[in-house]
Design brief:
With 297 residues, this protein is α/β, with parallel strands linked by helices. The chain is globular and about 50 Å long. Strands 1, 2, 3, 4, 5, 6, 7, 8, 9 and 10 form a ten-stranded mixed beta sheet that branches. The longest helix has 16 residues. Helix content is 31%, strand content 17%.
């Protein structure tokens, strides 16, 4: 990590010696929460909850970020790989269905060490890699054999949207290559008798205001490329927060109209999509954002 190239930014920061990368982090692991999480897809959370670790920092700069406090490196506690392994085992003892690594890209080498230590000490849960989708294939290959479930976003197909909202014009092409590697590693979905996913890929897409056409392109690509090899999670929970620059991005200063989300679902069904998760009712609420109080660290 002395010339960091973990993420597609390839910023070259000397994180090994205390410099911060584009992600906002040095080589010290920082996290903001480790607890049972009930708000993932049903096959991830189940009734018991997903053993979720929210890591500090992020390789994207989404202007609408729902976890902005940790993405912008404002909240986080330094932990060692050894302690992270202990956290994984504690979550297993609490009855978690899996270990869920949220925004982990900037700490992949350290997480790999922690997972290996925890597995040697009895960790048996599936490992979920929960990411914005902006990943280097070379970094993902470090996780082969350790990660069982990939839970990436495919945020955009439109490069202009990616540039404007996430400072990553190359996001569409980078994310497609990353997804290809994820599917290669873990293969088709596998569930246990309770319907909890044990292995597979779920691709999330958050519908943004005014972006229905791009959302349809995302769904078309996913279904035509992967069919029943993956699940698609279509989300309508976009919530404009106080951190949004409403003068610069006025089009994002509203929730998604119900009719737009319904059109997206209808479109997915018309393509033949059957392996999908959808959200019902009014889910555009800040209650989906957990408190980042350093719980469980």
């Amino acid at each position: 990590m002395s010339e960091c190239e973990l993420c597609p930014r390839m910023c070259g920061a000397d994180r090994e010696h205390g410099k911060r990368g584009f992600c906002g982090e040095t080589n010290e692991i920082r996290a903001a929460r480790a607890a049972l999480h009930m708000w993932e897809e049903p096959c991830i959370s189940g009734k018991e909850g997903s053993g979720t670790v929210f890591f500090t920092g992020c390789t994207l700069r989404c202007v609408f970020c729902q976890n902005h406090e940790i993405a912008a490196s404002k909240i986080g506690k330094v932990i060692t790989s050894e302690h992270l392994a202990e956290i994984f085992l504690q979550l297993q003892e609490k009855g978690a269905n899996n270990i869920n690594l949220v925004t982990p890209t900037q700490f992949v080498p350290q997480i790999v060490r922690a997972l290996r230590m925890a597995k040697e000490q009895g960790l048996m849960l599936p490992i979920v890699y929960n990411t914005g989708g902006y990943e280097r294939v070379e970094t993902l290959k470090m996780l082969e054999g350790l990660v069982d479930i990939y839970l990436p976003d495919l945020k955009y197909f439109n490069a202009e949207h990616a540039k404007k909202y996430s400072m990553a014009e190359d996001y569409p092409e980078v994310a497609k290559l990353a997804l290809e590697e994820m599917v290669r590693q873990v293969g088709a979905p596998v569930f246990d008798e309770r319907g909890i996913m044990k292995r597979g890929v779920i691709v999330r897409h958050l519908l943004l205001p005014g972006c229905l056409a791009d959302a349809k392109r995302v769904v078309t690509y996913l279904y035509e490329t992967y069919g029943d090899q993956i699940y698609i999670s279509l989300m309508s929970q976009y919530t404009p927060l106080g951190t949004l620059d409403v003068e610069k991005y006025p089009e994002l200063n509203r929730t998604v109209p119900a009719y737009a989300y319904e059109r997206l679902i209808d479109y997915a069904l018309s393509l033949g999509v059957t392996q999908a998760f959808i959200q019902e009712g009014d889910v555009a609420k800040e209650s989906f954002i957990p408190p980042f109080t350093l719980e469980g660290l």
